[in-house]
Design brief:
Length: 137
């Protein structure tokens, strides 16, 4: 079974990572961790010029944090970071291209903006995914 886990390092997304870890341990699932750096170009007016670097650093940190759980148990895991305006589209695209059997995603993100974004991201993934989706609270 191929499992794609979307993570942003938030509490809910780390619960999704934990669920995938259990599937890897118990059922030998092949897990890919995915983090998306939002390109918020429409909102960059007046923002610091290095904001995109910061978003990419956060995405990398989320992957490192999630991968550490697999490394601690010596379980194989792949990581992928993508960047774009609509995270759900990237997650759905990766699931299609990689022929994944399941997507596991947290219900909400870290801060107020991410709660809105991640909530809508989870909803969009559920609506359009090419495979089973597990939303973890």
């Amino acid at each position: 079974m191929k499992v794609l886990v979307a993570t942003d390092g938030s509490e809910h997304s780390m619960k999704a990572v934990q669920r995938a870890l259990e599937l890897a341990e118990k059922q030998g699932a092949q897990v890919t961790l995915m983090s998306v750096a939002y390109y918020v170009s429409d909102y960059l007016e007046g923002m610091p010029p290095n904001i995109q670097d910061k978003l990419e650093d956060e995405a990398r940190a989320a992957l490192k944090k999630a991968k550490a759980l697999f490394d601690a148990k010596s379980l194989p895991v792949e990581t992928v970071m993508e960047a774009g305006l609509v995270p759900a589209n990237l997650i759905i695209g990766k699931a299609q291209d990689g022929k994944f059997d399941r997507i596991i995603i947290g219900s909400t993100g870290q801060n107020a903006l991410e709660k809105i974004l991640m909530g809508s991201t989870a909803a969009k993934v559920v609506a359009h995914a090419p495979c089973e989706v597990t939303v973890v609270r």
